Amino acid sequence: MRRRPRRVLKDAAAEVRHFRTRVIIAFIGVTLVLSGLALGYYRLQVWHHDEYATRAEQNRIKLRPVVPGRGLIYDRKGRILADNVPAFRLEVTPREAGDPEDWLPGLAGIIDLSEQEIEDFLAARKVTRSYKPIILKLRMKPDELARLAVDRWKYPGVEVVSYLQRRYLHGELFAHVIGYVGRIDEADLAEMGEAGSVFSHTGKTGLERSYEEALRGKLGYEKVETNVDGRPMRIVGRVPAVPGADLRLSVDLDLQRAMVAAFGDADGSAIAVDTKTGQVLAMVSLPSYDTNLFVNGISHADYNGLINNPSRPLFNRNVLGGGPPGSTIKPVMALAGLDSGLRTPSDRILSTGEFRIPGQARGYRDASGGGHGWTDLRDSISRSVNTYYYKLALDMGIDRLSEYMHLYGFGEKSGIDLLGENAGVVPSREYKRTISKESWYPGETVISGIGQGYWIATALQIARSTAAVANGGDLHELRLLQSRRDGYESPWQDLPPTPSHRITDKPANLRAVQEGMIATINGPGGTARRMAVGASYTMAGKTGTAQRSSRKGNVSLNPHTLPYHLRHTALFTGYAPAEDPQIAVAVVVEHGGYGGSAAAPIARTIFDAWLLGKMPEGMEPTDDAVTDPLEAAVEMAQDAVDAEAATETGADAGEAAADSTTDPAQ
Fold this sequence. Notes:
The protein is α+β, with helices and mostly antiparallel strands.
């Protein structure tokens, strides 16, 4: 009989051990996974909390820079010369907008984009970081704003930005004083740093450039909450911008207008200064140009018209120019002769019509062909006797002459608050050595005494030295800025007086020179005696003629018979009233001929306008009433808010239209 196989019973203890082992392993695995998750959560929530919170906040909150309003510029009576008006520009953020080929053609169908604007944008896109907005169109028209408002949802990264645009109420009148702002370029960014990219404009010339930092103000910013599409929802924080400082100039609008009108169609420059302070009352360089053309970028046609103009309207003749001062140098030459001890007021020189250096055959002619006879210091100024100054310069020597002329402000910058001022040239051995290897000749000293030869003097220097003669000997630095205020509610703060130094400590010598200048206009033989006709006050001055062509042999040339480009430069410098000087002027008329006939009448018009309030014929004084800048600012801000609201409404309508569009296939 076969035996049955023995039945194997399960090992319950072994199974329990296996089960426990599996549970332990599973538990350890789950524990490790949970620990890893916990560690990950801890890393996110604790270790890197600040980093990820900042990133999340950046996704929700965008910082939008707030550009401050540029400071306003006023004349001495508080009349606005430069202000800001509301405008709108189109900015594109490359990272959000994408490839220009995808959106630029469509956008160009909505707004007018010139080829130059497109080229400038594409060029800027290559050198600008993708997250920074780039200006595509600087000034948008109202109809363009309306058209874009409807379709703006189609163009992510394209934004309309409101801003204040610079406006010059008297563009041509103050072009060479105030200057202008223009669009920021690479050179400006290199100077201003990274923060400068937020600004669209910066001062390019004139006071706009000299006081750029004060006028610009300080940036602020807004914290803007955005939705998932990056569209602004609300402002959750703000650091206000600090507006630029307002500047009040010493120049007078009416005097500036009178000065320009007095020139008529003539080219040249003029400046009027306060004899007691050195403040500039008016200053023109003619011809001029409209500074408003440059604010948003001047067109090629307009720019070519300016640079191809032979009269060079862009050239600031007062600051960058200069030339021989001619006989306007004689009053300070006479003062140098007195202060050096080489002359007394009563010393007389015989003028025969020609002066010769001992041992030389060449003669140096006087202004009068027959000579002036015996001449003292006062007559030498009033009748402009060259022989007196030929002899004085030769006796003084070029080294001493140069030293005194530097004392009187020639060959030195006037200190005016405009950049790039020409210091000019005073004749000297050192200067000649810089331009040639030849030695100095006595004849060069002789002609230096009448403001010819190696002379370069600006109208600023001539007026400055004349003011020093008028006020008793104080040579002030010149300045255009009178006061400033940092905020509309802040008081105006006057600038401290300009530095000065004495040109003489001998009042009697200065008085003799002043009497000679008074006789120039009021004496019987004065070269500007016609200037005094009908005047109710006494003037003092000196005429001058800077030659552009020399005589032929012994025959003097009549400048009015010469070709226009070879005619002499006419000059005049003077002050008034003679008893209590308030204003000093220097006038330079290019191709004018003689100072007495071309430049002196301009000076008379300037004196009448300042001292009597008498404007040139057909010109009325400007209304002194000034629009309240705060009220104007409120109105401009309201205009900007209304326009922005209209833009947002149009965008909402466009999005709603897009959302309601159905697929034709449905």
